Please model this.
Amino acid sequence: MISGGLNLIIGQLLASAFVLLIAMTVHEFAHNYVGYRMGDPTPRDLGRLTLNPLVHINWIGWAMWVVIGFGILGSAPINEWRMRDRRWGFFWAVAAGPLSNLALAAFAALLYRLGIWQFEFFQRTDFLFNFNQFMTLFFSLNLLLFLFNLLPFFPFDGWHMLRKLLPPREASILERYQQESFYIFLGLLVLSFVGFNILGTILNPPYRFMLGLLLGI
Model:
C-alpha cells in the first residue's frame, strides 16, 4: 500500500509534469513565432514553429522543475542579428515567452471567474489529481513562470529584455557583467534551498498582487 505522503508527492508531480509541459511548449513557441515574425528565419528553418513539445523540451530541465522547482525547460534559437530591428524585434521575441505564460494564467483566471473551477489543493491521500487541482497548479505555475522569467539575471528573459530597454552604453555595461549576473542568481538560488528564500521574498509580492488582480481574491 502506498503511504499518504507518497500519494501526495505522486499526485503533485504528475500534475506539475503536465502543466509544465504545456507551459513550456507555449512559452518556447511564442519566442520562436514572434522571432520569425520579426524577420528571423531560424525558428522556421529548425522546425520550431510548432506546438509539438518534443521539439522544444529540455528533458533534464523539465524533470528538475517538476521535482525541485527549478530547471531550464527549453530554448528558442532566435537570432537578433537576422531580425529587421535588432533592438525591438529581439525585445518582443524575448518578451513573448513570459507574456504567453501570463496569457495562460489569464485564461485560467477567466475560467475561474466563470465558475468552471475552484481552488483545490492536494490532500495527503491524493494519488491522482482532479480538474480543480490541475487548474490550481495551471494558474499558479504559469503566473510563477511569468514572474520568474522577468528576473533581471542572465540567462533569463528579463535580462535580455533589460539589455534591449537600456541605451546602448548601459546595455554594453550590462553585457560585460553577464557572467557575474548568472553567479548572483545561482547564489540566490542556493540560499533559497538552504532556508534563506530571497527569491521567494522578491517574487511573492508581485505574485500575490497578480493573483488578486486576475482572480479578484
User: Anything to note?
Assistant: The chain is about 70% helix and 0% strand. The two ends are 39 Å apart (CA to CA). Residues 4-215 form one domain.
